Amino acid sequence: MEHTSNAHKSLKKDLFEGVDFYQVDDLLTEEHKLIRSSIRDFVKKEISPYIEDWAQRAHFPYEIVKKFGDVGAFGPQIPAEYGGGGMDYIAYGLIMQEIERGDSGMRSTASVQGSLVMYPIYKFGSEEQKKKYLPKLASGEMLGCFGLTEPDFGSNPSGMVTNFKDMGDHYLLNGAKMWISNSPKADIAVVWAKNEAGRIHGLIVERGMEGFSTPETHGKWSLRASATGELVFDNVKVPKENLLPGKSGLGAPMMCLDSARYGIAWGAIGAAMDCYDSAKRYALERIQFDKPIGSFQLIQKKLAEMLTEITKAQLITWKLGVMMNEGKATTAHISLAKRNNVAMALEIAREARQIHGGMGITGEYPIMRHMMNLESVVTYEGTHDIHLLILGHDITGIPAFK
Ligand code: TGC
Ligand code: FAD
Predict the structure, then answer these.
(1) Would you say the pTM of this structure is higher than 0.85?
(2) Among 14, 86, 128, 314, which lies 20 to 30 A Cα-Cα from 243?
(3) Cα of 304 to ligand 1 centre, how many Å?
(4) Which DSSP letter does residue 240 get?
(5) pLDDT of residue 13
């Protein structure tokens, strides 16, 4: 059924107005606020009314891709000459925050496209590759995905076994990637694979190349409105001009992850704000023992702690955005924010679920969906513990991964 059908429309109006206890808005420019408000309006119109239905049916609304392109959600940080938004990292963060306020799976679609597909093509691609792919990715004419994780190499991507051989006039690609966001619908995949010398390179693999398939992963209880799948390469002939020439080694995909993890740090605040907003409204409306439950100290404690954590996360993330704009943010700076903010959002989702009582487990409220989504967000783009180890490495100078 067409997604605009009223039959699937949520009856609840999206009343979200933002959370800004410490007047963090004073740190934003008028342009930042304008961008945020246009994406917030977009989410209220194009995502909120349908998202519960999509998630319940595990349906990826493919038509959202073009709409994201039209609203400027793909590659806002990529220069305008390649179709991107030419915006700064705070604008990028605000866009991720607003989209994830709607749903983490929707934010996944946008952040994979902008940070994990457009960014590597922009940063490491040839001029021909940039001209060929970036404008179409920015407009949503094309959807991309990013293949790093393999069945046997998740936290440890340097062990990957996907490989390519130089056959003279083309490369021959073999192997498989797993847990790839957007893969079942993607037109292109930025794939990380080892050459015969064991050096990691990025290759652009296009749908339709012989031997390339993208089976969908079914049965997820998380990110149900996002399409996730595998990338399977069975003797795929990849033209030589599809290799990203600008950088090789694990550092190349790690630079992409820096950008995407930064976006997730903002996105998680969006999910947390939505849970807090819903919990606050419910606490004031729900009567037990002849009073709104919001009049009980235990409920007030939960709400006060949520607001405190959201405010701390907003300040961390804004300052990180400034450091990103100045080129001063390191991987460890980004790890601190991604790790803190996602754990914070997950905790808020769990507390908000309790405030909603039994209603909290239903699709009438966004809580359980956010909570289940955040169980992926806390694992992808580096698990909670891997980010702790990145910080531990930065503090002590001693890597504790192996
Ligand atoms: P390590 O020895 O630390 O580094 C290997 C080489 O890479 C270089 N490097 C970086 N270069 C630039 N920027 C960075 N951020 C870099 N990080 C590392 C490093 O200098 C070194 O270079 P060289 O020349 O000396 O060789 O690597 P390691 O193998 O010990 O691994 C470190 C570890 C565990 C931290 C890292 O591999 C890691 O972060 N693992 C987590 C994997 C991960 O995050 N996967 C994400 C997959 S994509 C995804 O989840 C998308 S979900 C999207 C969505 O839907 O939103
Ligand atoms: P593992 O690496 O097997 O980790 C299992 C557990 O062991 C974790 O708790 C981890 O913290 C712990 N652990 C591992 N190593 C250590 C260590 N050295 N010390 C202490 N503890 C350790 N990948 C992509 O490439 N592209 C995508 O688009 C993408 N999208 C995703 C979408 C979803 C919905 C999900 C769930 C995942 C996605 N991923 C994607 C993969 C994601 O990045 C990996 O799941 C993640 O990096 C963890 O890898 P793993 O699942 O293999 O867990």
Answers:
(1) yes
(2) 86
(3) 37
(4) G
(5) 87
